[in-house]
Amino acid sequence: MIQDDNKHPIDAVITWVDSSDVVWQNKINQFLEKKIDWNNKKDSTRYNSINEIDIAILSIIKYAKFIKNIYLVTDNQQPDNFEQLQQKAKENNVNLELIDHKIIFRDYKEYLPTFNSQSIETLLYKIPNLLEHFIYFNDDMFLINKTKPSDFFIDGFPVLRGKWVEYNENILFKRMFTSKNENNKVTHRKAKETGSKLVGFKKNYTFYHTPYPLRKSTFENYFNKNEDILIRNIHNKFRDLEQYVPQSLINHLEIKNKTWVEESKISLMYFQSYNFFKFIFKFKKLESRGDFLFMCLQSLELAPKKTLKYLLTWIDKKLETNFNETVN
């Protein structure tokens, strides 16, 4: 039986960095051999943003009415509009709170500062007063239609959206045509595969770029017995070949324990390219259907002005905001 009556209260967690902060820019460059040229858009694109965090927070407030707390995890920063966002959350009976890296790294302060999302994600379960059931959002993930608890948890178990895939090393043509340099390159896929291998799987249940339902106790039970695996993931200030994606590790633990629900309907509209005509074609598909719950906009700051205006106009209508004014 599907429980959709808030029997299991749910929090939301978002990780975010303000890369326009000069203090933070100077901090990260202290630890980089090759310094980031913050005037070079291509060089800095991984860290750039155009207030997506405001959109992410407002989308949760509007389209996930069951959320109790939204925790924004940062490095001694806060969004420009944080007080307004906090007031909006309060009006909707949601607590919006900043959580500094020092709080979740309180037992591992020697590994700060960190600029490594996988390290930070490993310790999200250390947020004080975090509920057992929480949904983790990257700051480029947005809700675009009304969601309900059972879109994320059913009978207390996380709803996983993904598919089983072979490890790259077990795919013949990948082995034949992958160079040694490529094998030594840090990639998200490799880190997801590592998470699977740590749990003992021969294949990887690779997840889609949708919000991640997670259970605090799954982190606690595993890391209390395997602190070496935790430290392996948090001691690198930047991504490293030895690391794993925490969501992958936790998902595979849930699968191993048979404490998960598989959802074949992805409900995701994913944008990575912003060519205007291709974008419009894809967007019309989104608008013609009402069953998409999630949108992901990767590297949105690279979108041409025409595409960006179109998109932000649509978001303004969805969220009753005025983000489009930022590109006028």
Return the domain count: 1
Number of strand elements = 13
Query: Major sheet: size, sense and barrel closure?
Result: 5 strands, mixed
User: What is the averaged pLDDT score?
Assistant: 91
The helix-and-strand class reads alpha/beta
| CATH topology heading | Spore Coat Polysaccharide Biosynthesis Protein SpsA, Chain A
Rg is 20 Å
Order of helices and strands: EHHHEHEHHEEEEEHHHEEHHHEEHEH
Instruction: Tell me the overall shape.
Output: globular
Strand content: 15-25%
Distinct helical segment count: 14
CA-CA gap between termini: 50 Å
Q: How is the largest sheet built, in terms of strand order?
A: 3-2-1-4-10
Under CATH at level 1, the class stands as: Alpha Beta
Describe, in plain words, how this protein is organized in 3D:
The chain is globular and about 50 Å long. It has 328 residues and is of the alpha/beta class. It has a five-stranded mixed sheet. The model has no long low-confidence stretch (mean pLDDT 91). The chain starts with 9 loop residues before the first strand and ends in a 9-residue tail after the last helix. It has one domain (10-327): Spore Coat Polysaccharide Biosynthesis Protein SpsA, Chain A, CATH 3.90.550. It is built from 14 helices and 13 strands. Helix 9 packs parallel to helix 12 and helix 10 crosses helix 11.
